[in-house]
Fold this sequence. Notes:
Layout: E1 4-8, E2 11-14, H1 29-40, E3 49-58, E4 66-75, E5 80-89, E6 92-103, E7 129-130, H2 136-139, E8 141-147, E9 156-162, H3 174-182, H4 185-188, E10 197-201, E11 203-208, E12 216-225, E13 230-239, E14 242-255
Antiparallel strand pairs: 1-2, 2-4, 3-6, 3-11, 4-5, 5-6, 7-8, 8-9, 9-12, 10-14, 11-14, 12-13, 13-14
Amino acid sequence: MSMYRRLAMGRYLASEHTQGPWDPGSQHMGPVTALIVHELDRTAPLPGLALSRLAVDVFAPVPVAELEVVTDVVRDGKRVQCLSAAVLSGGREYARATAWRIREADTPATPAAGPPAPVPPPSPEHAGSYLVSGFGYGRAFDWRFARGGPMLSGPATVWGRLTVPLVEGEETTPFERLAAFADSGNGVSPAVDFATHLFVNVDLTISLFRTPVGEWTCMDAATAIGPAGRGLTRTTLYDERGEVGSATQTLYVAPR
Length: 256
């Protein structure tokens, strides 16, 4: 079963693989973010321009139901292009995104300033594969923790591979896989106890300096909680060739 089934142009039906950890009737924002990328890739594509930044604001928990993704070109250009996307269900807007495409060119690659590349995921016959169970999104990935672990507090380094298609009968791109995974930075590096507190992200910003490749994505994530109900998760993103960019999430934090 895929995460979504296309009903018409821009319209989809969500499956149980999109379920988040807080409410079985609400989606994890990872699949929603990947679906936004899926639709943006089909919006006014220009040869040589690559999606380089995506910022998603979340207005309310997205229901596991029929969705509509409406996209537009905000600013067109030959070198840079700004796009927008809105996610609706039942006529209500649940999330809004902006994205930048940047023209590709030959430039000298410089070493990234972030932490060194983590160890690639172990092969299946070795110990280290973890199943994050209990909700549909968690079961839709192959999780490999290099640091930390499921439901453990503190920073974490984890590889993930999507094991189901994003959209039934349609190709899932490496950027879509990365987008589906990157929204889990706060979930794998909690700074408070899941049983006693909510720590829900109200946004997600992904910035990439190169296009990801392959099936596997790695997050090196850490979360900081302030004294007044706000938090911030900062995640360095990798594919199997090395670092590709970063993600940030602003968190709403409160006792349950």
